[in-house]
From TrEMBL:
Disordered as annotated region, ranges: 382-486
Gene Ontology terms, MF aspect: ATP binding; ATP hydrolysis activity; ATP-dependent DNA damage sensor activity; mismatched DNA binding
Record's keyword terms, sorted: DNA damage, DNA repair
Domain MutL C-terminal dimerisation intervals: 514-663
Sequence similarity: Belongs to the DNA mismatch repair MutL/HexB family.
Name of protein: DNA mismatch repair protein MutL
Native source organism of the sequence: Bernardetia litoralis (strain ATCC 23117 / DSM 6794 / NBRC 15988 / NCIMB 1366 / Fx l1 / Sio-4) (Flexibacter litoralis)
UniProt xrefs under PANTHER family: DNA MISMATCH REPAIR PROTEIN MLH, PMS, MUTL (PTHR10073), DNA MISMATCH REPAIR PROTEIN MLH1 (PTHR10073:SF12)
Biased composition (Basic and acidic residues): 382-398, 409-439, 447-463
Gene: mutL
Amino acid sequence: MLDIIRLLPESLANQIAAGEVVQRPASVVKEMLENSVDAEATTIELVLKDAGKILIQVIDNGKGMSETDARMCFERHATSKIIEPDDLYNILTFGFRGEAMASVAAVAQVELRTKQEDQEIGTFIYIEGSEVKKHEPIATQKGTSLAVKNLFFNTPARRKFLKSNSVELRHITQEFERVALANPHINFSMHHNGQEIYNLREGKLARRIVAMFGKSYQSNLLTCQEDVETIKLLGYVGKPQAAKKTKGSQYFFVNNRFIKSGYLHHAVMTAYEGLLPKDAHPFYVLFIEIDPKKIDINVHPTKTEIKFDDERTVYVVVQSAVKQALGVSQVVSPLDFDTDANFLNPSNYSKNQNENYVVDENNDDEPKTFFSDFSKYDDKKTNENKDFIGKYDKDENKGTYGSYINEPFNRKKDLKSHERPEPTERQKSNQKNWERIYLSDEDMEASGERRGTSNEGVNRDKGQVNTDYNTPRPSSHASRPQVFRSSANNLSKVELEAEIKSSKSKIVNSHKRHVFWVANRFVASPTKSGMILIDASAAHERILYERYEQRIAKSTNNIATSQQILFPPTLTFSVVDYELLKEVLHELKNLGFSIEINDKLEEKQQIRLIGLPADLLKEKGESILEALLEQFKYNQTTIKIPKRENILRAFAKRASMQTKNYFSTEEMQSLIDELFACQQPNYTPDGKKIFMLLDTEMIEQLFL
């Protein structure tokens, strides 16, 4: 039998190795920037074309390379950083394996120009797919210019899986920001398709942070430092009010190397305990200096994961430093002397450090209790109705669910503009099932229903109203209580009372329904066979999604109605967010946002917000737009959906978070009616359950 095991050709071996090191253009950018830093450059320029797919070029004024070194740097496992095994435990440079340049040259066309200060002439090398095409002397300046062209030109399958330019540019920008933050003493610049994205001058870390992320950070940074025998920590943390609902603004550096650590992130989060809304993430840039012998950085191809000799001590130092920074600024929460059960088990956090972030709709800043106080609601007609109102002030409607979700009711618009089409068959089915949940047997008989069929259409095991979601989804909305769509300001008092009375008659037994506000999040309501528990924010998200989906479909040119802002604010965005905003400008216009961008504003990554969707509170406009972009970016990385659908989902989720953490009885009634007039009331657009039905038998089982 013939021998079948053989050595791979060098070029093929390099292509295989490139799969670990070169995953996308951002991987190449990271390796090239780190090489320039290792070369002790004081000025580094990054030039890109088509998000690095056509060109990635890094120009620096570092030490440069000799002719021999220039050729050797493209060989596998060729490095100047280590010589013997013990050197692995004394590494203070970024690169040391000697794999990066060989891997890049295997899947791209590479041009290298380099010269050392004491040389009169430099070296030019052109490599294509690991094969040296040119190697000759050239006149060039001190330092190195490395150009990577047509990435994955010889591996079309890899190139096919690259994302859009905006996504790839965002990944490149993240790598650029990490290197720039770690080296504030170096001048950095970044250009994309001839446009300057960053121009960062050398200076202190705080100045670098403000230059990269915006002037809003200037007043939100707290100095953080700790110095113990073996560990030194320096950096900045953000004030609690500057926290965001998405990850991405958290930076840990160990010996100037960016790392990811869920365990250390938990140390920061425990220091902020009691100061942040649930699932909000604070900004921080923290540098840890530690003896290289006490860490192992050779555990991952990208070197973003490291092992500490004593991880618990590092945890304590980080937590203590952050708490001290918050305490000095008098924003720290009361001390908690209970031991964190997870503190002694770092592995819990290393497992989850790359977990997808899921936004939680409960976004309130007030301390939560499971139940608030119950009080009686004095109805003018009857004293039998009881209302769970907690802290709700009947005279304060601004920002509550009723004034927000039903804003058209308070706007001066023609009544005809809010008329709804006839309900679809699915909507009629939803409403009929909803009636069966609430109506008593006598009411069912009076309405022509037979006894014994009251639970038809309800799936008790799953707590869902049965609807056929495999059928095509109609574009029209359900018919909803017209009172929440009328223009009350244009009606007389008599007309308004008649309108309200007419609308109430359309609500299924609303005069019999009792509703309660639970745990600052849920609406609970007794039903004929048990009770229903509704996540208010999730319900709000579904309602907004279907409302705007219909508005866009029914409006002229697929553009929803917009309300103009009397004094349009000027908003400043980061480079990444600004490019993303320009990409989705058309979809934002369809939602009802009116945005002005001109040459003068574009130079500063600024826009003027001229108009908002018709029923969006004006004071919420700026925060909604910024949060919408954050959610859009999150959706892009977790699911693949059309851009228009992504924008709709992002808007519905973020707008639903703007509701307050207490609802009046009327608002809870409205929420229930609106939800079950939706096409798909069971789930949010991204698949989260909205409500659960608990029948008497299920409740009794809880007490056995």
